[in-house]
Sequence to fold (267 residues):
Amino acid sequence: MTVVGNHTREPDLRTALAAVEDCLVEATRSDVPFITAAARHLARPGGRRLRPLLVLLAARFGDPRAPGVVPAAVVVELTHLATRYHDDVRHEPNATVAVLTGDFFFARASRLLAGLGPRAVRLQADAFKRLVSGQILETTGPRDGHDPVAHHLRTLAARTGALTAVSGRLGALTSGATEEIADALAVYGEHLGVARHLAAELHSPVPGTPTLSVLLSGDPTAPAMTEARQEVLRQCAAAHAALAPLPACSARTALAELCDAVARGDH
Fold:
């Protein structure tokens, strides 16, 4: 996403993101060379690192140099990478390797979480519970008589929004920001995560995966695409609104610009 790159030019943020990358390298190292190679393949630098960025921006509402901030950013990225590996089971010839590599990421994330204290552990556990629930909802589909569109949005809020929400909350928690700020950042993160996923559906749909436009009409017709686009804008507007309680600063500006980037369809 273009705007992510724009804000990583700020020296302090660039330094923090570099520290996240260094920690990811360390976290994906194993005594078993095969595991290290498999883990590094997905954790390689150059990704968008949206979730760590949200942690680092959220931390700017407290003390961004607090010792738990970078580990929290690494935790959310490791969790994201683990879920990607588990998703790849459907496409990976050796499903066992995909599952175990994902489990390796989860183990490393759990070790880092232990150093952040019991509240951070609970927050991440709750987010992971929602994430897994969303994956199950996606797999099982809506029950008979239930609206498939509402089901899809509920699935995305859990499957995608839970981790972006906890990214904001953990950034606030580890930096010592107030509860009001943490709550606002969690709401912001959830709506941003859903909007970003819906925007990706419009621009790069995955074959065989349900998208909002298809669920609206049974086929990605122009009116359905327009309606799906409106839902992206609604989610972005809700994310923007969540920023209202936050004090004006460069971090709040960056968060707002992330919303604008998603609304424009920048990826």
About this structure: The CA atoms of residues 38 and 133 lie 26 Å apart.
